[in-house]
Amino acid sequence: MTDIRDELEIRPVTTEHLDQFNDLLSYVFQVTAKEVEESGYEEGELERDKRPVLEKADVIGWFHKNELVSQLAIYPCKVNIHGVPYKMAGLTGVGTYPEYSGHGLMHDLISRGLQMMRDNRQWISYLYPYSIPFYRKKGWEIMSDHLTFDVKDTQLPRQQNLTGHVERLEIDDPDVINTYDRFALKNHGAMIRNQLNWDEYWRWENEEERIAGVWYDENDVPQGFVLYWIANEVFHIKEMVYITQEARIALWNFVAAHFSMVEHVRGNIYKNEPLHFLLDDGDIKQTIKPYYMARIVDVFEFLRQYPFAEQGKPFHFVVHDPMAKWNEGIFGVRWMENGEHEISHDPLGEAVELDIQTLTTMLMSYRRPSYLAQIERINASAPAIRNLENIIPMEEPYFSDYF
After folding, report:
1. Are 60 and 21 in contact (CB under 8 A)?
2. For residues 191 and 180, what is the distance between their CA atoms, to the nearest angstrom?
3. Lowest mean pLDDT among 111-125, 268-282, 345-359
4. Quick one: average pLDDT of 191-210?
5. For residue 26, what are the contacts with CB-CB under 8 A and spacing of at least 6?
6. Is the Cβ–Cβ distance between 293 and 129 less than 8 Å?
7. Residue 170 DSSP one-character state
8. Which one, of 15, 8, 16, lies nearest residue 53 by Cα?
9. Which of 104, 140, 202, 398 could bond 135 through an S-S bridge, CB–CB 3.0 to 4.6 Å?
């Protein structure tokens, strides 16, 4: 009996395969023509907009003769990891036609993709999971949350007197872009957006209906913005970004100024930072769900750049990663006299044994070492866990993009 894989080959997906690329995405994720139209696209526009993905990203797929039957795309991105900019591989466009499933095609594509990420010095990868169990098996783990909230008009915060003002601007105004850039450099986990990232951020949104409310401080410097639209007496917040707490208060002043126009304010928070604690009437409806997953692509190189919070005692990780053989083994960490750390393959100090998923979520500060040890995701002594608690930064990730 002939194995179907004998009739297939892996090769790059290029702009000449644009129609097949989009057809496969639409089939796998069941994107209808109506949904495309409701997102503000005219016929053929979405396909043209996806062309930069194939031009700027690394896209590979399995082909049956000249038919694309399985694919993945790797976006070139950059993110802030505790104040250090890292090149990040954004994994997306993952899909296989059902008649070709069950043959390990995606396993091989991801394995090839990880090698490509490593060759491109992308030491970490993010993705939006359509199946958390599937991607956990491939080494990714949850790294951020998405909160939604619903505040009634009577629960909006009282106006506070501040020196400054809000201007309503286009969503791509330079003050919006520049304010986000400053925000991203201060917030762990955030995407440092280029134009491709901004295009993907608005991909499934009708951006013509969106408005940016930008707050300027007393020196006329923009310190935050809210991206919003109003429909059916609801003030919808896509994202609220603020660099100072004064900006947060000012933006909520602006939202509350719509009191007579709306009955509800509904929006998103891309960090596990519940809104109810900040409101006078905190009895609001909130939901929380996992958002993005991350995976360390190369442990040695990721640790070399990693900004530990402080110096600790020498120790070593014992890492398990069946998808990336270069991550299997020992990674020693020690601090030198100048305060910098160095990574080796020596079994220094105490051992900390864990898989690549756990290492990722811990170093991304989504879950603390003590909690991961408690649920038996880490095998280490109590002193080793205390050492990790001291050296791993506390700030949880913020990530609001989608690709």
Report:
1. no
2. 10
3. 268-282
4. 86
5. none
6. yes
7. -
8. 15
9. 140
